[in-house]
Amino acid sequence: MRISKIHIFLFVILIITLSGSCRKKDDLVPNVYVNFTIFLSDPEFSTLQIIGNSVFVTGGVSGIIIYRLSQTEFSAYDRCCTFQPNDRCAVLPDTANTLFLNCPCCSSKFSFLDGSVQSGQAKRALTTYYTSFDGNNTLRVSN
Prior knowledge:
Layout lengths: L4 H17 L13 E5 L14 E4 L6 E5 L5 E5 L13 E2 L6 E3 L6 E3 L5 E3 L8 E6 L4 E5 L1
Antiparallel strand pairs: 1-10, 2-3, 3-4, 4-9, 5-6, 6-7, 7-8, 9-10
C-alpha cells in the first residue's frame, strides 16, 4: 500500500486538531446578562453622590461594585476575581488605599479606575460593565 502526501498531510492535521482539544480551556469569568438602572437619590445609593465612593449591588457573577470616578463618570465591575473564577471569590475595596480592590482568596489587587490587575496571581482585568449616567440622578449599568 502506498501512502500519498495528501494522506500524510491529513494525518498531521488530524493530530494537531486532536491535541488542541485536550488542552485545558481558559478559566474565564462567565458572561452573564446585566441591565439595570439605579437612582442616586435612592438612600441605598446616596453614597455614590460623592466622588470616590462605591456601592455593592446584586447581579453579575459574584455581585457588582459601582465606583464614582468623577462628577460624570462611573465604573462598574463584576466582583468575581479573574484568578480561578469558578471559586466565585468576590473582591473587596482595599481599606488602606481606596483606589484598589483586593481579592481575599488569592491576594490579587485590581485598580478601581479601570479594573486592571495591579499585583497578585490574577492575569486578567475584572469584568467591566458599561455605565451610562444622565448627568443628574440616573445611572444605567449593562453589558
